[in-house]
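User: Please fill in residues for this 111-position structure.
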């Protein structure tokens, strides 16, 4: 899904949900364990995902315990069902924050 942020920039988003639709980048992020369900919340490694996970891997933007780039504190963010991931700007927003600063757009709105 796409939205416009308050600057007018078109961004890729996903509303966190166990049963809702998932864009390709979300499916890939789950497969790579960048997104992991833990009880009723989602552990998110924002540094590892983008709309193109494969591009991040090529650029070396992902790490591992064996010497990767992001080993350390504060590397994960938590999200809850209903929160929105703006992967373009690498943010996790509450529904209230999202409604205040973003507008969901359809494919025909993209110019």
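Assistant: Residues filled in for all 111 positions:
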């Amino acid at each position: 899904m796409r939205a416009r942020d308050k600057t007018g920039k078109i961004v890729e988003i996903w509303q966190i949900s166990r049963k809702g639709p998932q864009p390709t980048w979300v499916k890939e992020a789950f497969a790579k364990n960048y997104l992991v369900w833990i009880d009723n919340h989602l552990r998110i490694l924002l540094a590892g995902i983008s709309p193109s996970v494969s591009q991040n891997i090529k650029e070396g933007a992902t790490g591992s315990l064996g010497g990767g780039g992001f080993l350390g504190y504060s590397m994960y963010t938590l999200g809850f069902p209903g929160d929105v991931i703006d992967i373009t700007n690498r943010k996790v927003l509450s529904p209230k924050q999202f409604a205040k600063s973003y507008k969901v757009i359809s494919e025909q709105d993209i110019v």
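For context: The chain has three helices and eight strands.
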